[in-house]
Amino acid sequence: MQVKKASGTWDEKLRWEYDWNPRDQMERADKFINGLGIPEGYVEYRYCLSCDGALSERIEHGAYSGGSHPIVSWQRYEYHGLDLVRVDERYDTSGGTIDSGDPWRTLEVSTHRPGAIGSLLGKRVYTHTNNDATPDTTEDFYYTYDPVGNVVSVLDDSGNEAYHFTQEAFLGMNSPSMSLAAAIGTARRVIGSWSTKRENGRMISRASTTSGRGGMTRRWGGL
Ligand SMILES: [Ca+2]
Ligand SMILES: [Ca+2]
What we know:
- There is one protein chain.
- The protein has 223 residues and is mainly beta.
- The protein has one domain (2-207).
- Helices cover 4% and strands 48% of the residues.
- It is built from two helices and 17 strands.
- It has helices spanning 180-183, 187-190, and strands spanning 2-4, 10-12, 14-20, 26-33, 41-48, 54-61, 71-80, 83-90, 104-112, 120-127, 137-145, 151-155, 161-164, 166-167, 173-175, 194-199, 202-207.
- The strands form four sheets. The chain has an eleven-stranded antiparallel beta sheet with strand order 3-4-5-6-7-8-9-10-11-12-13, with no helix packed on it. A two-stranded antiparallel ribbon has the order 1-2.
- A hairpin with a 5-residue loop joins β14 (166-167) and β15.
- 23% of the residues are buried.
- Residues 175-223 have low confidence and may be disordered.
- One calcium ion is lined by residues 128, 130, 132, 134, 136.
């Protein structure tokens, strides 16, 4: 993205660069700001060849500091078939920087209807506020669908409607404009890893390497 200055010349404010693997999957996205040659941050993506090529890890590197880009988030995705059933993250037991030797803890566990790509039925979300693997907050969400498979509402632990969705007759979602995953506080964890996808008029949520319509979370290219 470039911004025009009063002089009529253009300033580069934001630029993304992407690397792809031989299977056409994004391996890395670098974010550059203000025309600088060193990225502001970047994200690496790893894929599971034995899981239909699904995204398996997402590693986010923060701002350049002390000669490197420290890892600020390292997440792992686990599947049953094509359904994403669990998201874990690495954490440092003493609050230090995240590295490949750090242990895992669970962020989300999802349940799906049976089927090759089963609708999401429920999700348990764990929030961690300190440096151990014991969740400090646990929330459950349940998904309800209309007869053709669109998400209608998300219920909380008590059966109260936490979020409600309406659909246009032809595939579009009227509301809410914000993403479903963001609404339940999981956007930070799944940014860049999920997309909304519609198949035969049915909205599904799945890990994907392609951006989809609707925007259940931010799409590829976002930090
Ligand atoms: Ca560490
Ligand atoms: Ca804890």
